[in-house]
Design a protein that fits this description.
It comes from Patiriisocius marinus. 35% of the residues lie in helices and 27% in strands. With 390 residues, it is of the alpha/beta class. The chain has one domain: 3-Layer(bba) Sandwich (FAD/NAD(P)-binding domain), CATH 3.50.50.60. It binds flavin-adenine dinucleotide. The site of flavin-adenine dinucleotide has 40 residues, from helix 2, strand 2, strand 3, helix 5 and strand 13.
């Protein structure tokens, strides 16, 4: 062990079986799952709960059975039950379909806080930013250990580290991940509004260079969240001007931005959203949720994938622990395999659909065909979704 006795004594107090970096959906679901099975878990999250996040806030029902198993039922918290889907474009094409599996609408402000309330029952939480992660193997005992340092200069150690720090984090740089070196053209804007629309419908409105999702949340307010190319936005002086002059070329968005009453003082924005390939394991850290890969938001499935990756990791971890086959290699191989089996095809399908929808010609042709044969829409959606997680 490379530390002096004083530090070693401290390490004893702060050693965990599993240390989770990032308490979003993936991290919180893992914390609940593992800590209910007496695993000693620490979650380090940089932001206090509750907080808003840029997200479409439509969650696929595929996660409902698993969330209920974890002791969380979003429907008890007034989540909007969604079974219909509307897609429109700037050429006045409008398609309405029934969703096979459906989903629910709930703000991240509530959902993350509900999961946190459940997770904190059996896991420990530290609100701080992780700045570095070191993995070492003892030369003599051959035992491996992670040391995790935070911006408050606190040091924690663990047998396993879960990286659930989202789509872009300071840690991606320190871990030297390749995707972080590439510039990306994507930005997103989100806000809550008072606006009349069906409770049971999620809407996707296409515009040049992006698309905007509208759906109800548990408060009855509408969440409006759009993804756009930065190049489309740059021609305008402000978000307001962009929405009025650019997004409003779609008549549904024109109606929305002219009549909806904003609830937030100003919308939340993020940029540098990367859809590049990532790895489910990096430097022996198990990457979950967006840290392992972000699906294009129009699929409305990133949250389900984050929660699903928590289930995959937790089940494998518990299996290796219960069978005392304490082999890191076994866990790494099986997590990577299961992650790829569960998500690779969805990520590819999402990328193809996004490319079609964001190209004016292919989107016009695609949506025209879909308006004549609307039954193809649910089967396309299926390609980016999984089955209920029982
Ligand atoms: C524009 C847009 C719209 C979307 N719409 C939808 C949708 O409608 N439906 C859907 O299912 N998905 C949607 N998604 C995807 C969805 O938001 C993500 O897939 C989901 O949030 C992933 O959860 P996560 O737990 O992996 O990450 P997050 O929820 O981002 O959590 C990561 C956490 O890590 C913390 N963190 C980061 N770095 C550190 C650090 N160094 N130390 C400590 N903590 C750290 C952060 O504070 C954060 O809380 C959308 C995404 C975008 C960009």
């Amino acid at each position: 062990m490379p530390y002096n006795p004083e530090i070693r004594a401290m390490i004893k107090l702060t050693h965990f079986d599993v240390l989770i970096i990032g308490g979003g959906l993936a991290g919180l679901s893992t914390a609940i799952h593992l800590s209910k099975q007496n695993v000693k878990v620490l979650v380090i999250e940089k932001q206090k709960y509750p907080h808003h996040k840029v997200c479409g806030e439509y969650v696929s029902n595929e996660v409902l059975p698993y969330l209920k198993q974890l002791g969380v039922n979003p429907l008890y918290h007034n989540a909007a039950e969604i079974s219909k889907f509307k897609i429109t474009d700037t050429f006045n094409i409008e398609i309405d379909v029934q969703l096979d599996l459906g989903g629910f609408g709930i703000s991240r402000f509530s959902l993350d806080a509900i999961l946190y309330d459940e997770a904190r029952k059996n896991s420990e939480f530290i609100f701080d930013t992780v700045t570095s992660i070191t993995y070492e193997v003892n030369d003599i005992s051959k035992k491996s250990i992670f040391s995790v340092l935070t911006s408050a200069n606190s040091l924690y150690t663990a047998d396993y580290v879960v990286g659930s720090f989202g789509k872009r984090s300071n840690l991606d740089k320190s871990l030297n991940r390749t995707f972080i070196q590439k510039k990306t053209p994507w930005m997103a804007v989100k806000g809550h509004y008072t606006y009349e629309m069906p409770n049971n419908q999620v809407q996707l409105h296409n515009f040049k260079g992006g698309y905007c999702g509208l759906s109800k949340t548990e408060t009855g307010q509408v969440n409006a969240c759009y993804l756009s190319k930065v190049s489309a936005f740059k021609k305008y002086k402000s978000i307001k001007a962009f929405q009025k002059e650019h997004l409003s070329k779609n008549k549904h968005l024109k109606h929305f931005f002219e009549t909806a009453v904003p609830v937030f003082e100003k919308p939340l924005t993020i940029s540098q959203i990367s859809f590049e390939n990532k790895e489910p394991i990096s430097n022996h850290i198990f990457m979950l949720g967006d840290s392992a890969g972000l699906i294009h938001p129009l699929c409305g499935n990133g949250m389900a994938m984050a929660i699903h990756s928590a289930k995959i990791f937790s089940e494998l971890y518990l299996k290796s622990r219960n069978e005392s086959s304490d082999s890191r290699q076994w866990l790494e191989d099986n997590y990577a395999l299961k992650w790829n089996n569960a998500f690779q095809k969805r990520l590819k399908a999402g990328s193809v659909i996004q490319r079609i929808l964001l190209n004016e010609t292919s989107s016009k042709i695609g949506l025209k065909i879909a308006s004549v044969f609307p039954q193809i829409v649910p089967s396309i959606i299926k390609k980016t979704h999984g089955s209920p997680m029982i």
